[in-house]
């Protein structure tokens, strides 16, 4: 089985030696997304965790859609946050994208630092 690199111009281009996502069979592994605007390459939100979280979710959606997947296909997410004190707000926004009838498995981890000093980064795995 060959792996396929997934790319979406609607999501930020990788800022290192990795792909936005890799599809292996009927599974897609989406790299961690941060709040970068695909058109400008600039960070969205100016440190506002709510704006960052919305942008991260839009970026995830764009990568999934490029491979023919949707958020309903997501089976697992990993959320990295700079401050676990923001978990409630991030969780509320996340819940606007993943509804209870198809909410994926997930873990949330506080880390000391994220790329470009963002507040939140999310990766996911989806299966069709």
UniProtKB/TrEMBL annotation:
Pfam families linked to this entry: Ribonuc_L-PSP
Designated name of the protein: 2-iminobutanoate/2-iminopropanoate deaminase
GO CC list: cytosol
Family from the record: Belongs to the RutC family.
Organism: Hymenobacter luteus
Gene Ontology molecular function, alphabetical: 2-iminobutanoate/2-iminopropanoate deaminase
Sorted UniProt keywords: Hydrolase
InterPro entries referenced in this protein's UniProt entry, alphabetically: RidA, RutC-like_sf, YjgF/YER057c/UK114
Lineage: Bacteria, Pseudomonadati, Bacteroidota, Cytophagia, Cytophagales
Keyword Hydrolase appears in the UniProt entry: yes
EC number(s) per entry: 3.5.99.10
Domain of life: Bacteria
């Amino acid at each position: 089985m060959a792996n396929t690199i997934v790319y979406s111009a609607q999501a930020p281009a990788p800022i290192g030696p990795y792909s936005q996502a890799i599809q292996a069979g009927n599974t897609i592994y989406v790299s961690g997304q941060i709040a970068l605007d695909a058109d400008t390459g600039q960070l969205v939100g100016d440190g506002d965790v709510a704006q960052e979280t919305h942008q991260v979710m839009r970026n995830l959606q764009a990568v999934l859609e490029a491979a023919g997947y949707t958020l309903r296909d997501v089976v697992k997410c990993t959320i990295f946050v700079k401050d676990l004190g923001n978990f409630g707000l991030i969780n509320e926004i996340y819940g606007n994208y993943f509804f209870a009838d198809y909410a994926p498995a997930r873990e949330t981890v506080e880390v000391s630092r994220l790329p470009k000093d963002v507040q939140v980064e999310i990766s996911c795995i989806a299966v069709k």
